[in-house]
Design goal:
With 490 residues, this protein is of the alpha/beta class. The protein is 41% helix and 15% strand. The protein has 22 helices and 18 strands. The longest helix has 20 residues. It binds ligand NAX, adenosine-5'-diphosphate and potassium ion. Adenosine-5'-diphosphate binds next to α19. The site of potassium ion has 11 residues, from β5 and β6. Belongs to the NnrE/AIBP family. It comes from Streptomyces durmitorensis. Pfam families: Carb_kinase (PF01256), YjeF_N (PF03853). Its EC number is 4.2.1.136, 5.1.99.6.
Length: 490
């Protein structure tokens, strides 16, 4: 599990650690790690030209100490001081003593033009709001010049706690972050600005947080955001055993599709079958299309409540305006996943009143409609939006998009999915995800785990299917078994 912590939690842990180590030790650890990564990016340090962008806080101090180390190894290092009257004094002294050159703001463009590497030490976790002038102008000139950029702790202009970017921000090739990940490095848009993230151990110790849907709210010492890795997903995959039968593996009921959108039903059923369901029951108006593609599906003509035994329902993909059956599903006392049109059609009070787990899977547009805000607002503040929706509906919410997020109804860490690929932005791929996550719910995973494991497998399947070329949603569904094998290490 990759865990990320809020600035408040990081600061508390740093204070605790600083009380136990010699003064300045943490900054030296940070600077040493930073210099190593800079040297890797440069390839050859001796004779290279490095430019440090140095802000007024400790982030600038890290850059100066790392710059001193590079200067001692023969790099020509220049430091552009953004506020010469306020700069980390110890860092500046070390930098000068190592032969580093200080340039005034006006000289910045000149040194930047010949740079082999730019080190962004403008602001770190002390950054508040969008970058102010002159930092903002400097950042746009760096972008225009195109030199490789290593960001110190996080790209300046990215909000550490949320990944929100207002105005200019540094686009880094590599971000060297200290102690622990920050949420803004894992959630878009911040994640995209961070490039490759390298974690440097400075001795911080923070506990593992409580997962989505896991109960306790995030407080000091608890993770704000967590990202599954292969092992986390592998340990949750429902595998059949000798005692398994189709009911024990989980029967998924799917209420999806319409005369107008029969394909959504086919895709959701396809996702569910590859998600490990023992059986899939289909209820809706696209039964002919479903059976033609998946003869193994069990179709029923009556309402969902009469369809027979079901361990979890998926409702909504491609329903159009056909709300028939939806109320039945919302009233069921088994886990329910609501997606797409179902999110618009379902009665909010009935969803809130449900006793069994509920997983809502909106994309940004659907989330915006549920929240009554503009889509851009959700895109800009994904973490806040997913938490707000989960709280309002008393449900687990999976917010789709370039970094899919899963939040539980009672706070706790939000899961962020690291496996997605922009190739997944293709019509119907969300329908596949709903079936896949529904199968995991039916197999007995909690809503937070089903959402996070589903998103992880779906993202991997997208990568397998695409492999650098466009894909359709059907291809994604067909690649789910390859994603399982990947995760299981087969
Ligand atoms: N606290 C610690 O133990 C350690 C901290 N370290 C470094 O220290 C950083 C935090 O240092 P600070 O608390 O001094 O804070 P920062 O250096 O991140 O930023 C604070 C400075 O940036 C300015 N600033 C804030 N928002 C701005 C904006 N929007 N536009 C322009 N300027 C802005 C402020 O006026 C302030 O002077 C970390 O990110 C990390 O790089 C590391 O040295 C490791 C150890
Ligand atoms: N830029 C992106 N990067 C990674 N994944 C994406 C991106 N855009 C969309 N996706 C994923 O693609 C899927 C699209 O689902 P959705 O928006 O519901 O489409 P549809 O309704 O057509 O099925 C989601 O799983 C989403 O997370
Ligand atoms: K920075």
């Amino acid at each position: 599990m990759r865990t990320a912590y809020t600035v408040e939690t990081v600061r508390a842990a740093e204070r605790e650690l600083m009380a136990r180590v010699p003064e300045g030790a943490l900054m030296q650890r940070a600077a040493a790690g930073l210099a190593v990564v800079c040297a890797e990016v440069l390839g050859k340090v001796y004779g290279s030209r490095v430019v440090l962008l140095v802000g007024s806080g400790d982030n600038g101090g890290d850059a100066l100490f790392a710059g001193a180390r590079l200067a001692r190894r023969g790099a020509g290092v220049s430091a552009v001081l953004l506020s010469p009257e306020r700069v980390h004094a110890g860092g500046l002294a070390a930098f000068r003593a190592a032969g580093g050159r200080v340039v005034a703001g006006e000289g910045a463009e000149g040194v930047l033009r010949g740079a082999d590497l730019v080190v962004d030490g403008i602001v770190g976790i002390g950054g508040k709001g969008g970058l102010r002038a002159p930092a903002s102008q400097l950042v746009s000139s760096v972008r225009a010049l195109g030199a490789p950029v290593v960001a110190v702790d996080l790209p300046s202009g990215v909000d550490a706690d949320s990944g929100v970017v207002v105005g200019e921000a540094v686009r880094a090739d590599v971000t060297v972050t200290f102690g622990v990940y920050k949420p803004g490095l894992l959630i878009d848009p911040g994640r995209e600005y961070a490039g490759v993230v390298r974690l440097v151990d400075i001795g911080l110790e923070l506990g593992v947080g409580v997962g989505a849907g896991g109960g306790a709210g995030a407080g000091v010492g608890e993770a704000e955001v967590e990202a599954f890795q292969y092992a986390d997903v592998a340990s949750l995959l429902p595998l059949p055993t000798g005692e398994s039968d189709k009911y024990r593996r989980g029967v998924v009921g799917i209420v999806a599709g319409s005369a107008r959108y029969p394909g959504a039903a086919v895709l959701a059923v396809g996702g569910a079958l590859r998600g490990g369901a023992g059986a899939v029951r289909y209820v809706g108006r696209a039964a002919d299309a479903v059976i033609a593609r998946f003869p193994e599906a069990l179709v029923s003509a009556g309402p969902p409540s009469k369809a027979g035994r079901v361990q979890a329902w998926v409702a909504g993909p491609g329903l159009g305006d056909d709300a028939e059956g939806l109320a039945d599903v919302v009233g069921a006392d088994v886990p329910v996943l609501i997606d797409a049109d179902g999110l618009r059609l379902a009665d909010a009070a009935a969803v809130r009143g449900r006793g069994a787990p509920t997983l809502l899977t909106p994309h940004a547009g659907e989330a915006a409609a549920l929240l009554g805000v503009a889509r851009e607002e959700v895109e800009r503040g994904r973490l806040a939006a997913v938490r707000e929706l989960a709280g309002r509906y008393g449900a687990t919410v999976l917010l789709k998009g370039s970094t899919t997020l899963v939040a539980g109804p009672d706070g706790g860490a939000v899961r962020v999915n690291p496996t997605g690929t922009p190739w997944l932005a293709t019509a119907g791929s969300g329908d596949v995800l709903s079936g896949l996550a529904g199968a995991l719910l039916a197999a007995g995973l909690g809503a937070g785990d089903a959402g996070a494991v589903g998103a992880y497998l779906h993202g991997l399947a997208g990568r397998h299917a695409a492999d650098g070329a466009p894909v359709g949603a059907q291809d994604v569904a067909e690649a789910i078994p390859a994603a399982w094998r990947d995760v299981r290490g087969d």
